[in-house]
Amino acid sequence: MKTTNSNIVYKEEGQGETLLLIHGFCGSSEYWSKVMPKLSESFRVIAIDLPGHGESEGYDSVQEIDQYASVIKDFLEELGIEKATMFGHSLGGYITLAFAERYSEYLNGFSLIHSTGFPDSAEAKEGRITSAEKIEQDGIDSFIDGLVPKLFAPDNVETYKQSIEDVKKVGYGTPAQGAKNALNAMKERKDRTEVLANTKLPVLLIAGENDQLIPTDKTFTASGKNIKQVVIKGTGHMSMYEAPEELCNAILTYLK
């Protein structure tokens, strides 16, 4: 389905309280295909394609994390959704934190999945620049071929060959400009660890035991009665593919 004003393409299943799923860099709503059926047994589950990703347009105008958050606010208003629980994977987590900072009145709670409140380090910023140059020179397909295997735990690369191919296929569909805009948005994002530390909303932090991109300590930057921390064993950065059942269980336990 597609909204008219915000140009967001999305998938929807189930009825009840709204869960909004936001994918990571060079992903799409397809990232959630293994978890949506289970979650939608009890909830209305909406998975979007971010601007400049999947089938959503808007890769010319959306170039900052706060802009992605603003588009999502417009999207919720367009669908008449007053409150949702937001789950953000990686880049989606950065956007979720920006949303929680600016539009917390729309949230019942939120979750970071393989994500962090920290900004990019100087080294990571250089990596974003290099990645954008690689996309410019070699095209998106070559970049995705290099990126995707690193998203999985090293021990899972052989086991999850089909999933890796599926994730690559999603990545190939990302417009080059959409990917470059997202890289710049991530590079320029601010430190939002205080948003996590200060929120009164119920929060779920999920880390992969063997995540090569965002280690556990970068995800678990806050603790408190309202914050639940979960490590998913044997997974890298892609628990929705590597351990969808465990991810669903963590989400449903939190929602209870």
Write out key terms for the chains shown.
single chain, 256 residues, alpha/beta, Rossmann fold, seven-stranded mixed sheet, globular
Question: Can you walk me through this structure?
Answer:
- The chain is of the alpha/beta class.
- It has a single domain, classed as Rossmann fold.
- It is built from 11 helices and 7 strands.
- Helix 1 (36-39) links the parallel strand 2 (18-22) and strand 3.
In short:
The protein has 256 residues and is α/β, with parallel strands linked by helices. Helix content is 43%, strand content 15%. It has a single domain, classed as 3-Layer(aba) Sandwich (Rossmann fold), CATH 3.40.50.1820.
Please report the first level of CATH classification, the CATH class: Alpha Beta
Helix-strand pattern, N to C?
EEHEHEHEHHHHHEHEHH
Shape: globular
How many strand segments? 7
Widest beta sheet: strand line-up: 1-3-2-4-5-6-7
Query: Mean pLDDT, nearest integer?
Result: 95
Oligomeric state of the chains in view: single chain
CATH superfamily (homologous) name: Alpha/Beta hydrolase fold, catalytic domain
| End-to-end C-alpha gap | 29 Å
